Amino acid sequence: MSGGRARVVACSNIALAKYWGKADEAQNLTAVPSLSLTLDALRTTTEVAVDATLQRDELILGGRAVAGRPLARAAALLERVRALSGSRLHARVTSENDFPTASGLASSASGFAALALAAARAYGAPLGPGALSAVARRGSASAARSLHGGFVELLAGAEEARQLAPETHWDVRMVVAVTTLAAKGESSTSGMLHTARTSPYYGAWLEHAPRLFEEIRAAVLARDLAALGPAMEQSALAMHASMLASRPAVIYLNAASLAALARVRALREVDGVSAWATMDAGPHVKVLASAEDAPRVRDALLAVAGVERTIVSAPGPAARVIEP
Ligand code: PMV
What we know:
With 324 residues, the protein is of the alpha+beta class. 39% of the residues lie in helices and 26% in strands. It has helices spanning 68-85, 107-123, 129-139, 141-146, 188-198, 202-221, 225-244, 255-269, 294-302, and strands at 5-17, 22-24, 29-30, 34-50, 58-61, 64-65, 91-97, 151-154, 162-165, 172-179, 276-278, 285-290, 307-313, 320-322. Strands 1, 4, 5, 6, 7, 8, 9 and 14 form an eight-stranded mixed sheet that branches. Strands 11-12-10-13 form a four-stranded antiparallel sheet. Helix 1 (68-85) packs parallel to helix 2. Bound molecules: (3R)-3-hydroxy-3-methyl-5-(phosphonooxy)pentanoic acid. The site of (3R)-3-hydroxy-3-methyl-5-(phosphonooxy)pentanoic acid has 14 residues, from helix 2, helix 4 and helix 5.
């Protein structure tokens, strides 16, 4: 083996203001602005080892060698970093999530963020935070946001994400309710392209999402959960409504997701707890609440039929290089 090696930890993120749809498919630019919270409790650790003896790139995920589309996507990112560094050597990528990969939680966000930073270091590519975010974005748009800590925005058509406020800005909690996953759902990329092609509500989504983003952005800056919550829920449900109107429908939510949503509403209306839900391209429900209310929200979600476990997360830091 000859060449560089780097190990990186990156946290996943959950969008409070969702993006769904591409402004440019080839460049992987997003059609609407999004704003996310980086999550301390959902981490990916990735090592990139450049190796002159390799004939092609290798990917080991959770201890198992992986081929097919995941390897092709990782190799495409490595290829971009090689082009920037002038190297032609291949690399071995070893990656582990500290949360269940098959659970449908957003492993591509932390995965491509960690890979972008580790590859840049291993190949010695001189990339600043902006350029790194752009490299990660080509792998998965949500990954552009995971290079930063705290509250992060990715504007429509933007090359790179930027931090809106650091993780110390607001001590909120995201309670992730992991529901029973019957089968692996459609990938976010194909789900959003299908929505754009066939849903009569996609145009309405494109028109409304930027307004919700502005509302959410202002509420985050003001640390105003009562203002953030309703706009955040509407962002998620308007996104799912645009998918549901596709032909055939794109459906990620299951019975447990709907039961969890009903429980969150009851937490607010019956128990007086300020808790607000969001959902992505999977059946899990993520609930934003104050640090003080998080244990109560977690207990309520654990009692919902079909919720298998919960993960409570504080705001997380930026992706960072760690010692081997
Ligand atoms: O960029 P991707 O392919 O990870 O898609 C992310 C899509 C959502 O999670 C549903 C929304 C978002 O803004 O993260």
